[in-house]
Design goal:
This protein is of the alpha/beta class. It is about 45% helix and about 15% strand. Its main location: cytoplasm.
């Protein structure tokens, strides 16, 4: 068995044999053996990839389902998904699309990853207000970042090798008159006004500019261009983009007289209705510089029992049989959090590589007394401590003061009492003397303070 190891931004995927960079299965939640992340593969339990993506809950809305099932069960087709550079990184919502693309490619179909060098200059309509237009230089820079990210999740080898395209290549040379005559004439304003994103903005105080109103035409033109250049007959995207997806299918039908298809994946929300992947406005980015592997791992580890099986279906390549077993474990032994541990391992390894996943699991173990803090790599340890209450102190700072600075105690006197009661440790060693100082002896010049069994804080010395 092999596992796919995905490297840092721009690096090519590499293959590693099961057992390399392995992690304890107690963390993955199965038995006492050793496992690594699952290799991307389609599930042989399904007759075709359409049945699998339906079972995984990836089809919220689509064009003709019977036609799609036949299409995806037959000869290889070309399909695409677009990613606009409205930020310097993709996020978990985009990961749904990347995983869907990968599943279709594993079934033999040919992916086109479109990075929106032109649509990124415009921006699709948001529900509430007009987007801020970024500079051309910023968008061009972000195009490069997103391109390298998309490349990490697809295969560029074999008969169905992926291809990356940029819609600026066919949009930039077109004059406004050509755009209106060749594309705009096929659109009816009444139909455009009925699109959900447009209708929501028309009914808001902000209204909608002609720029964002025209976005659906640009996306429709993308599908037409890819149909003409590559024979592309399917587009995937989020269900909130359904109006833009059907803009392309309708345009191709009018201009070329053929039927093409679209699949809208569900918007992922938590069982309590809250938006998935964001906490206090902070998205879970796929770029390690914007969201560390440790933070990503912890995000998945904290998945609610009510959500974890759906997440395993969408975000991992575990088989139906494996996921059904985790469903049984969630019901029978929820306290073990076996499904959450496996989910965190699988997604972190897929996004950041098996080495990074192993490192963050080792850090989680060591922080809670099941490993050697001094053996951790400096970057992973720092990322882990950044997720805890933490403080930066000068070299030689008294442990009592560090307890106060990190918020583990509310006063110096409370800190002294905690030490006297034997309830404080520094870097895994019990603090016996209240005059002890923080030295930052762990890798990267940091220390770990613990009060009691489970209350931790990070100390950055410098």
């Amino acid at each position: 068995m092999h596992c796919l190891s995905v490297g840092p931004r721009g690096a090519a995927p590499t293959m590693c044999r099961r057992g390399e960079a392995s992690v304890a299965d107690s963390l993955a939640g199965v038995s006492e053996t050793v496992v690594s992340a699952t290799a991307p593969a389609i599930d042989p339990a399904f007759e075709n990839v359409w049945d699998e993506i339906v079972w995984r809950g990836l089809v919220h809305v689509s064009t003709d389902q019977e036609a799609l099932r036949a299409l995806l069960s037959g000869d290889p087709i070309t399909y695409y998904c677009g990613f606009d550079p409205t930020a310097p990184s993709l996020h978990l919502g985009n990961l749904v699309q990347l995983l869907t693309m990968r599943r279709l490619q594993l079934a033999g179909h040919k992916p086109l990853g479109l990075v929106g060098g032109s649509t990124g200059l415009v921006g699709d309509p948001r529900p509430s207000a007009e987007r801020t237009l970024n500079t051309r230089e910023t968008v061009a820079e972000w195009v490069g970042y997103l391109r390298s990210q998309v490349e990490r999740f697809l295969s560029f080898e074999g008969d169905n090798a992926a291809r990356i395209v940029n819609n600026l290549d066919w949009t930039a040379p077109m004059s406004a008159i050509d755009f209106l005559r060749e594309i705009g004439k096929h659109y009816r304003v009444g139909t455009m006004l009925k699109k959900d994103a447009v209708a929501a903005r028309l009914n808001s105080e902000a209204g909608i500019s002609y720029t964002e109103f025209s976005y659906q035409i640009l996306q429709g033109m993308d599908f037409l261009e890819l149909y003409r250049q590559y024979g592309c007959v399917l587009q995937t995207g989020g269900s909130d983009q359904w109006g833009n997806l059907t803009s392309g299918t309708d345009l191709i039908h009018r201009v070329e007289g053929v039927h093409v298809h679209a699949i809208g994946t569900p918007l992922i929300t938590n069982s309590d209705g809250t938006k998935f992947g964001k906490s206090e406005g902070n998205a879970i980015w796929l770029d390690a510089a914007m969201c560390s592997p440790y933070r990503m791992y912890q995000f998945w580890l904290n998945t609610d029992d009510a959500d974890v099986i759906e997440r395993l279906k969408i975000f991992t390549f575990l088989t139906r049989a494996e996921i059904e077993e985790y469903e049984r474990l969630v019901e029978a032994e929820p306290f073990r959090r076996a499904a959450q541990k496996r989910l965190a391992l699988e997604v972190t390894a897929f996004v950041h590589g098996t080495d990074a996943a192993a490192a963050v699991i080792a850090a989680s173990e060591a922080l809670f007394g099941q490993g050697d803090l001094a053996a951790l790599d400096a970057i992973t340890l720092r990322h882990a401590l950044e997720e805890l209450p933490n403080a930066t102190v000068a070299p030689g700072t008294n442990v009592v003061q560090a307890l106060v600075d990190t918020g583990l105690v509310s006063s110096l006197s409370e800190g002294r009492r905690a030490i006297a009661q034997g309830g404080v440790s520094l870097d895994g060693v019990k603090v016996e003397d209240e005059s002890a100082t923080v030295s930052g002896a762990l890798p990267g010049g940091v220390s770990v303070l613990r009060r009691g069994k489970k209350t931790l804080a990070g100390v950055f010395v410098g």
